[in-house]
Amino acid sequence: MLVEDILNQQAYYTKFAQSLPFTRLILLFLGEKPSSVIAVQILHIISNSIRISSSFSRKFELVSGWGILKTVLPGVWDADINQAAFDLLFGKSSIDSTSGSRSATPTPMSGSSLKARQKQERAEHDITVVSCTQIMPTILSALQTGLEAVAANCGIDDNGDGTIYCSFDTWTHLTSFYSRIHFALDVRKDDGDPD
């Protein structure tokens, strides 16, 4: 997408974000039923926006962007979206369109020098750090959608008349898993860790 290529540069990003309601425009680009390619590009734009602007996550939250991603993306989830979502979760930049290779964790363009130095040290030591927790509910929602599809097709023939069904309560397990993850993220925020 041309917009994605333009927004990879901080000067163009700043002009674009100042002149238009950028967070709402991203949701407009996403649409109600996006293709996989569009969803991946939107996740790349979000990743670059977080890298460039320290306030982007909050602005995106104010227009319910994270909730909309959680609603829209699980229906079109595939391997490419999965990769883009986890790249966003771990703060990796999007695929460089000219070389096709993944670049290392980006150096932030704004923020304190201490934080920048810490990110650089993590990148040098190859430490994985969660940098965008807001995408986690979307990932869990996609997991839930996939597991519900598996559970719905989990019938096995075998009891005389030919029917035995796997009996596991997907909703209970996923709710428990989600609650534990949500609690862990809340505890992390309460400890004063802004990331």
Secondary structure blueprint with pairings:
Layout: H1 2-7, H2 10-19, H3 22-30, H4 36-52, H5 56-62, H6 65-72, H7 79-89, H8 113-124, H9 136-152, E1 155-156, E2 164-165, H10 170-190
Antiparallel strand pairs: 1-2
What does the model show?
- It is a single chain.
- This protein is mainly α and 195 residues long.
- It has one domain.
- Helices cover 61% and strands 2% of the residues.
- The protein has 10 helices and 2 strands, in the order H-H-H-H-H-H-H-H-H-E-E-H.
- The protein has a two-stranded antiparallel ribbon.
- Helix 9 runs antiparallel to helix 10.
- The longest helix is centred in the last third of the chain and has 21 residues.
- It is globular.
- About 9% of the residues have low confidence.
| Parts with pLDDT < 50 across at least 5 consecutive residues | 95-111
Note the beta-strand portion: under 5%
Main sheet: strands, sense, barrel? 2 strands, antiparallel
Radius of gyration: 19 Å
List keywords for this structure.
mainly alpha, 195 residues, two-stranded antiparallel sheet
Provide a quick synopsis of the model.
By secondary structure, the protein is mainly alpha-helical. It has one domain (2-98, 110-190).
